[in-house]
Amino acid sequence: MNLDGLVVRTARIEDYDTLMKLEQKLIDAERPLNASLKKESAYYYNIEKLIFDQSSRLIVGEISGVIVATGYIQVRHSKPALEHEYHGYLGFMYVAEEYRGLGLNKVILQDLVRWGQSQGISDFYLDVYAENNSAIRAYEKFGFKSSLLEMKLDTKL
Ligand SMILES: CC(C)(COP(=O)(O)OP(=O)(O)OC[C@H]1O[C@@H](n2cnc3c(N)ncnc32)[C@H](O)[C@@H]1OP(=O)(O)O)[C@@H](O)C(=O)NCCC(=O)NCCS
After folding, report:
1. pLDDT of 2-18, one tens digit each?
2. From the CA of 98, how far away is ligand 1's center (Å)?
3. What is the pLDDT of residues 8-45, one digit of tens each?
4. Residue 13 confidence (pLDDT)
5. For a pocket test of ligand 1, which of 28, 73, 129, 134 has the largest count of ligand atoms closer than 8 A to its C-beta?
6. Structural domain range at position 128
7. Residue 136 falls within a domain, yes or no?
8. What is the number of the ligand 1 atom nearest to the C-alpha of 108?
9. What angle do CA 55, 61, 63 make, to 5 degrees?
10. Domain-located, residue 155
11. What domain count does the chain have?
12. 77-98 burial, b if ≥16 CB within 10 A, otherwise e?
């Protein structure tokens, strides 16, 4: 596998059904990392909003007309205590299994960060499960550093 013929473009409403399916694949990939995820009808994103909102950019990587990667950035208000008023929040990072490890996520991140910079953003955040080693490695290689650590107490256990 290689990335020959890769086209990176903004998502269109015609992509909606495919994006809904890829969202489920991403959620399935994260199920082993979070026992609290609903077994059915779990959704993360408002895909229509990500496509149409001016404050977000949802992109896809396409090879031979097939969407093999996704990612979005959303300009969000930052906490009042922070120096930056706005930040870029990144999500829906998904690469089809057969294209992983080829730097495709890096291409997606580069596009999204550049777009954020063009909107005046210089601080970028994302959430990743602490045990998602391949994702963490990909983000660290891009330049991300660990910041906040979410802790959870499950009193049902
Ligand atoms: C996380 C994910 C998006 C990374 O996409 P990717 O295109 O494979 O990532 P890249 O090829 O750009 O990775 C960059 C670096 O991460 C490392 N890396 C990525 N996947 C790896 C893997 N499976 N094993 C080891 N290292 C890996 C590589 O070292 C790579 O650097 P290199 O190209 O210099 O060798 C992809 O693995 C994926 O879709 N996973 C399932 C969904 C998911 O967990 N999404 C993240 C939610 S936060």
Report:
1. 999 999 999 999 999 99
2. 11
3. 999 999 999 999 999 999 999 999 999 999 999 999 99
4. 98
5. 134
6. 7-142
7. yes
8. 12
9. 155
10. no
11. 1
12. eeeeeeeeebbbbbbbbbbbee
* Ligand 1 first shell, C-beta below 6 A: 26, 29, 93-95, 100-106, 128, 132, 134-135, 137-138, 141
What CATH number is given to the structural domain containing 28?
3.40.630.30
Q: Is residue 154 part of a domain?
A: no
pTM: 0.94
User: Quick check: is 89 in a domain?
Assistant: yes
Among 95, 108, 111, name the best residue to mutate to test ligand 1's pocket (greatest count of ligand atoms within 8 A of Cβ).
95
SS3 content of the chain, % helix, strand, coil (to 5): 35, 25, 40
Quick count: other Cβ atoms within 10 Å of Cβ 75?
18
Alpha-carbon distance values, 83 to 79, 104, 122 (Å): 9, 32, 11
3-state secondary structure at position 54:
coil
Inform me whether the pLDDT recorded for 157 exceeds 80. Answer: no
Atom of ligand 1 nearest to the CA of 25: 42
